[in-house]
Write a structure and sequence with these properties.
Blueprint lengths: L3 E3 L25 E22 L6 H4 L7 E5 L2 E2 L3 H11 L4 E7 L2 E7 L2 E2 L5 E2 L3 E15 L5 E4 L15 E15 L8 E18 L2 E6 L10 E3 L9 E8 L5 E9 L10 E5 L2 H7 L10 E4 L2 E10 L2 E9 H8 L1
Antiparallel strand pairs: 1-12, 2-3, 2-9, 2-11, 2-14, 3-4, 3-5, 5-6, 7-8, 9-10, 10-13, 11-12, 12-13, 15-16, 15-18, 16-17, 17-20, 18-19, 19-20
Length: about 325
């Protein structure tokens, strides 16, 4: 049975590569993009392990300054590649002092930590960790020459710090939508679905503007969906529309309104209001899982939906397409 998953808009996923990968597109050299608006699944493994809890609020790790949301990258100089390996290294160390490298946001730290035995005699340092995550969002665009793609319109971030989670490797996968929780004031809605078991491509980068990668192929139904790129200076308040997939009707066009444009900044560059009655009746507005839905104005792609306002599901934020292209480059 396919595992049910919840689809998050502003939820948890951001990927920063420690290397430079030539995706090959920038805002300056791209004139036309394939506008997507299709759902995709995100699977990624972090570079290091993420501290997701301090069970007792104290212990060797807490005493050394490690907090929830920090990322443990190495033990005694050897990179940590999985949660299982991390636990094994701690168990095998016994009462031997370990040199632990970790990151808090952008800052790197080194601590000397001695594991302690719990009630069962197993040695631990007092943290819960994870090394992977999964979720679903929307593909914004595909660059037809390089097969590069972008999605989400925001990064996959730690829930507390808001910092992007470092990516070791990841994949984009096909999904099957199965239902909608309609958004209400104070309770954002969500799309529901499951991973369909087909790998679409690789994830290569994730930052505050979205997740990026390369597809194995362009979906047949999108090959002729090419739109010119709109320059930030030409975006204006008023009518626009999005492409989104929220149910079995497939990829559809829905009308929105753009307002409160802010020309500087990397993300949340303008506000979005859903005005399309068909979409409002289906979802209540913007729901988790629609992040990354491409926005079209005057026949050009201007950006993507990023977040929903918790107190008003008909409203949210958008990001400029040029900001996403700059992040790819």
């Amino acid at each position: 049975m396919k595992k049910k998953i919840r689809i998050y808009l502003a939820v948890v996923l951001t990927v920063l590569m420690a290397i430079s990968f030539p995706l090959g597109i920038t805002a300056g050299n791209v004139k036309e993009l394939i506008v997507a608006g299709i759902p995709f699944g995100v699977r990624f493994h972090t570079d290091g392990v993420i501290v997701i809890g301090i069970p007792s609020g104290k212990g060797p790790a807490a005493e050394a300054g490690i907090r929830r949301g920090d990322i443990i990258t190495a033990i005694d100089g050897a990179p940590v590649v999985s949660a299982e390996e991390f636990a094994e290294k701690i168990r095998n160390a016994g009462e031997t002092e370990l040199t632990v490298d970790f990151k808090s946001g952008e800052l790197s730290h080194t601590a000397h930590i001695t594991p302690k035995a719990d009630e069962s005699g197993e040695y631990k340092i007092g943290v819960w960790v994870k090394d992977s995550a999964a979720g679903i969002g929307t593909v914004t665009f595909i660059e037809p020459k390089t097969m590069s793609f972008a999605g989400l319109g925001h990064g996959i971030c730690d829930a507390e710090s808001g910092e992007p989670l470092p990516l070791a490797f990841g994949s984009a996968e096909s999904v099957t939508l199965s239902g909608i929780v309609i958004g209400k004031a104070g309770a954002p809605g969500e799309l529901r679905g499951s991973f369909a078991g087909h790998k679409m491509g690789k994830l290569l980068k994730n930052d505050i503007t979205g997740v990026y990668g390369v597809l194995a192929e362009i979906p047949e139904e999108l090959k002729n969906e090419k739109y010119p790129v709109c320059k930030t200076k030409d975006i204006k308040e008023g009518k626009a529309y999005i492409f989104a997939t929220v149910d079995n009707d497939g990829r559809q066009q829905y009308e929105i309104e753009i307002f409160d444009i802010v020309k500087d900044g990397k993300d949340r560059n303008f506000s979005v209001r859903v005005t399309d009655e068909a979409l409002l009746s289906k979802t209540g507005g913007i729901v988790q899982g629609m992040s990354g839905s491409p926005i079209i104005q005057d026949g050009k792609i201007i950006g993507a939906v990023t977040h929903v306002l918790v107190n008003d599901p008909a409203r949210g934020y958008g990001i400029f397409i040029e900001n996403m292209l700059d992040a790819v480059g």
